[in-house]
Specification:
3-stranded parallel sheet, 464 residues, alpha/beta, 6-stranded parallel sheet, 13 strands
């Protein structure tokens, strides 16, 4: 909404939410989330044609176009628990729109939703319309956290789906005209509603599939002495494959990939396509396997016990340039180490201590077994420290785990870190950020995902 306000100064853009504290945060000088470039865009428009308000009913009633960006988390109970999207907030938003509207509206799906959600929204709106006409469009968002502003200013494509009726196509054109203020016409794709809804799920599924594919290869590379970086470079040179999303790691995270693939799995199951559902389910299973494999490698390398040992965690966000920790591999690895009675010291340049403690203590549902995962116990809180300096976090540690690819980790003084650690000093690089040869010269025992194993590790298999 901030970018639309920036590029269309004649439009009045109002962001509304029922949470007053959240709206207050967006009206302060320090914004509530970290995203490169966002501060400049918001501050250029806020108070001019970009506003943040809790007066939802007034602004919904006045608006001509409504972008719905409510949360669609995975259900944690009931039918479809662990896979299906929870559309509770969507339905409440639709009913509220129907209650307060007294003029025709274009309602735009911005959230990632299951196929045919637009049809459900249409039914709610049209059965409570009081003579008001609605057109529902699908306009999924393809930005990535960490590069969101750049992705919006220079998108690879904008996708708009609508009904194939004169009224539906007119609504599509209205939204297309807004984006056309800064997006070339050939990059604005128009489709029917269902293609647009499914394209977003498919896009995330294909990206996650590539990550799981290269991570599966990383396990084979370690077993055979190949280097996953060299393999990725070689196959990425093939123009039919390309180099993107071929960086092997401890596993993907974030709010989208797992949630959207599980949603896709559930839709396939509901449509009688178990083979297709099982195919996409395997993408998540490989990701879980990769996180489990990394954790087991840490434990097995250190004489099969980390009890009482200090392990430093560098990076808690699910990726660099964001403070978002949702589904971060760091949570899984940290909780696993705590269960093994390790003491962990965590450093991340953007994630707050409150967020870290909350994530480690949160009870999550295991999507595959429908049972709660083991959160951090109250006594385990004493085993966790959060530091604001990477050198303090690693001081006295037996091992270091790099779990987020923050650029600053490339430039750390690893000789200084090594000198302050217990010996033997272990480095577990979950993002292939550091040069293992140079670190071994310093004295580290190094594990890098998908790269030839350190001689120390050859006789210590990590069973996943």
């Amino acid at each position: 909404m901030a970018v639309i306000a920036l590029k269309c100064p004649e439009l009045e853009v109002v962001v509304v939410d029922i949470c007053a504290s959240r709206i207050d945060a967006w009206n302060r000088d320090k914004l509530p989330i970290y995203e490169p470039g966002l501060d400049d865009v918001v501050k250029a428009c806020r108070g001019r044609n970009l506003f943040f308000s809790t007066d939802i009913e007034k602004h919904v009633a006045d608006a001509e176009i409504l972008f719905l960006s409510v949360n669609t988390p995975t259900k944690t109970s009931g039918l479809g628990a662990g896979k299906a999207a929870d559309l509770t907030f969507w339905e409440k938003a639709a009913r509220m729109i129907a209650d307060v509207s007294n003029s025709d509206k274009i309602v735009v799906e911005k959230s990632t939703v299951p196929v045919k959600t637009a049809e459900a929204i249409e039914k709610i709106l049209n059965h409570n319309n009081n003579g008001v006409k609605y057109q529902v469009l699908s306009n999924p968002e393809f930005l990535s956290e960490g590069t969101a502003i750049e992705d919006l200013l220079y998108p690879e494509r904008v996708l708009i789906g609508g009904r194939e009726t004169p009224e539906g196509q007119k609504a599509v054109q209205t939204l297309k005209d807004i984006y056309a203020r800064w997006v070339p016409d050939d990059l604005i794709i128009t489709t029917n509603l269902w293609s647009a809804e499914l394209s977003k799920l498919a896009s995330n599924a294909f990206q996650a599939q590539r990550v799981s594919s290269i991570n599966a290869m990383s396990a084979l590379c370690e077993a055979t002495g190949a280097s996953v970086s060299e393999v990725a470079y070689a196959i990425g040179m093939d123009s039919r494959i390309g180099p993107k999303f071929l960086n092997s790691s401890v596993g993907f995270g974030g709010s989208c990939f797992q949630k959207d693939i599980l949603n896709l799995v559930y839709i396939c199951e509901c449509n009688g396509l178990p083979e297709v559902a099982n195919y996409w389910k395997q993408v998540i299973k490989i990701n879980d396997y990769q996180k489990r494999r990394f954790l087991n490698r840490v434990i097995s390398s250190m004489f099969n016990t980390v009890s009482g040992k200090k392990i430093a965690i560098l990076g808690f966000a699910f990726k660099k340039d964001t403070a978002d920790t949702r589904e971060s591999a760091s949570i899984f690895v940290s909780q696993g180490l705590l269960r093994e009675k390790a003491n962990i010291s965590i450093y991340d340049p953007k994630v707050t201590e409150d967020q870290i403690q909350y994530d480690l203590a949160t009870n999550k549902l295991d999507w595959d077994n429908q049972v709660p995962q083991q959160p951090m116990s109250p006594t385990a809180r004493n085993q966790v420290t959060v530091m604001w300096d990477p050198y303090e976090a690693t001081k006295g540690a037996h091992g270091v785990c790099i779990l987020t690819e923050w650029d600053e980790f490339k430039d750390l003084d690893y000789k200084k870190i090594y000198d302050g650690m217990q010996k033997p000093a272990f480095m577990f690089d979950g993002r292939n950020m550091v040069d293992p040869v140079k670190l071994r010269e310093i004295g580290f025992i190094v594990y890098s995902i998908g790269r030839p194993l350190d001689p120390w590790l050859l006789d210590m298999p990590a069973v996943a």
